[in-house]
Design brief:
Helices cover 35% and strands 19% of the residues. The protein is α/β, with parallel strands linked by helices. The protein has a single domain, classed as Aldolase class I (TIM Barrel, Alpha-Beta Barrel), CATH 3.20.20.70. Strands 1-8-7-6-5-4-3-2 form an eight-stranded parallel sheet. Helix 2 links the parallel strand 2 and strand 3. Helix 2 runs parallel beside helix 3. It is globular and about 45 Å long.
C-alpha cells in the first residue's frame, strides 16, 4: 500500500516530466527537481501502440522509486492499462492515470486501482470531449487534460484543449486536481491556470534548462503571480 498522497486540490504544483530528462543520470535529474521543491514527478509510460512512442516500464519505475520519495505521478498512455497497472503500482507508482478510450468499464477500473493502493486519474486527449468522462471523473483524484497530442515532448501548447479545464471543474467540483500536460512554459502555464488547472506537467521547460531550480522558480512565479 502506497502512503504518499497528492497535495490537496487548489494548490499550484509542478510535476516535472522525466521524458525530457537525461536518462543516463536519472537519479541526479530527479534529485535536482525534488530538492528545488517538486513534490511529484511525472512518469510518461508509452507503449508504441496507443501512442507513437515507447518509453519506460515497471522495471524503470522500480529503480526510480529506490532513488526518491517523491509522489510518482504515472501516466499510462497504453492500450491495456488493466493488464499492466498492478505491476506499476507494485514498482512504486503512487497515482495511475489512464485514458478513457482504453478501458471498457472505467468506474470498475478505478475501484480496482484503489484496491491496489493507488490514487487514480483519468485523461482527456485534445480530441476527446469532456462528456466522455463525466461519470468517472468525480470518482478520481485527478483529471489530466492533455494540451498536446500524446506521444512526444516539446510540442506546442493547444489552448483550445486547455479550455476544457473549465468544464472539467464544473464536473468534478473543488476537491479533484486538474492537471495539464503539454507545451507548458512561463506564458502558457498562466493560461492553463486561468482555465482552472492546478497541476502542471513541464518537461523541456525544466529539464531542458541548465538550472532546474531557476526554471521551476520561473514557472511557479508565473503561475502564482501572472495574469493572462
Amino acid at each position: 500500500m502506497n502512503l504518499r498522497k497528492l497535495p490537496p486540490a487548489g494548490t499550484c504544483e509542478l510535476s516535472p516530466s522525466i521524458l525530457s530528462a537525461d536518462f543516463a543520470n536519472l537519479a541526479s535529474e530527479i534529485a535536482q527537481v525534488t530538492q528545488a521543491g517538486a513534490k511529484m514527478v511525472h512518469l510518461d509510460v508509452m507503449d508504441g501502440h496507443f501512442v507513437p512512442n515507447i518509453t519506460l516500464g515497471p522495471v524503470v519505475v522500480k529503480w526510480i522509486r529506490k532513488c526518491t520519495d517523491a509522489f510518482l505521478d504515472t501516466h499510462l498512455m497504453i492500450s491495456e492499462p488493466e493488464r499492466y497497472a498492478e505491476a506499476f503500482i507494485k514498482a512504486g507508482a503512487d497515482l495511475i492515470t489512464f485514458h478513457i478510450e482504453t478501458v471498457r468499464q472505467p468506474e470498475e477500473f478505478v475501484k480496482t486501482l484503489r484496491g491496489l493502493g493507488a490514487q487514480v486519474g483519468i485523461t482527456l486527449n485534445p480530441a476527446t470531449e469532456v462528456g466522455t468522462i463525466e461519470k468517472v471523473a468525480p470518482l478520481c483524484d485527478m483529471v489530466l487534460v492533455m494540451t498536446v497530442n500524446p506521444g512526444f515532448g516539446a510540442q506546442a501548447f493547444m489552448e483550445d484543449a486547455a479550455q476544457k479545464c473549465r468544464r472539467v471543474r464544473e464536473v468534478v467540483g473543488p476537491n479533484v486536481r486538474i492537471e495539464v500536460d503539454g507545451g507548458i512554459y512561463a506564458d502558457t502555464i498562466v493560461k492553463a491556470r486561468d482555465y482552472g488547472a492546478d497541476t502542471f506537467v513541464a518537461g523541456n521547460a525544466i529539464f531542458g534548462q541548465p538550472d532546474r531550480a531557476a526554471a521551476m522558480n520561473a514557472l511557479l512565479t508565473a503561475v502564482r503571480k501572472g495574469k493572462s
